[in-house]
Amino acid sequence: MKSQKKHLKNKHLSWYIKLLSVILFFLFLLNISTANVQADIDLPLTTTSKDGSTISYEIYGEGKIPLIFVHGWCCDSRYWRMQVPFFSNKYKIVLVDLAGHGHSSAKRSNYTMESFGEDVAAVINAINCEKAILIGHSMGGPVIAQTAKIIPEKVIALVGIDTFENIEYPLDEKGKQEFLAPLDKDFPSGSRMMVNRMFSNSTSQRIREWVTADMSSAPPEVALSANHAYFDQYVTGEAATIFDEVRQPVYCVSGELWPINYEANRRHMSSFDAVTLKGAAHFLMLARPDEFNSALDKTIETILANNKLN
What we know:
It contains 12 helices and 8 strands. By secondary structure, it is of the alpha/beta class.
């Protein structure tokens, strides 16, 4: 009887050991699987701008010549969400959050086009690329112009997205102050009023509501500083004269809200051309992604072909 009990005890012990081994084995596999999932998560990267600001950026896809996407005023890298799947299949793309926007730090006293240009330059230097194509929406247009001024040897071309309509646009200090007064007085209300003028009747209500709510919730101190700096370029004439130094070709993919003055731009730029999407408005990359992606892709192909980089 004792021998039989001892045998049963040993049998149970052996069974427990086997069960424990199986459990440990599956836990081991689970840990490996979890580690692989964690390794595949695309987290933003960071670098440091000239003034010490932390600049967040994301990289998708592969390619020798990266496309650097720069958002506009009160926006961030999310505004390029409809471009990531399309362009990352063909190119290495980099989405930048300018200082005071998105995941980047907001420690500056003044948010100028020059300091934003340094942010983009810092990212280009951080990814160790020899050449890049810069793509800037709205305020991102003058930002990438500043980047080209800072590191001209690394910039192949500039692509403005609904920007650079007329770099000679006549504006004086009084006109600037009158235009920006509603924002200075009540930023959330003033920004909503201004942003609502940037849509066409065909823009979906969902996009209209999201963009308006998002932009009007931006930090007022950042938004107001950047907006004054942006319009100061037209008051001083720098919006045009910067192209005395920036000699890379300029292309645009634009909507129809504001007419393009080709003659004015070509008086200053080494070359200028644009594609206009009929019926499109300011946020065409969100509202008309298929048409926009196709037009931008053709523009990129033209730039690469002209530089014999295809």
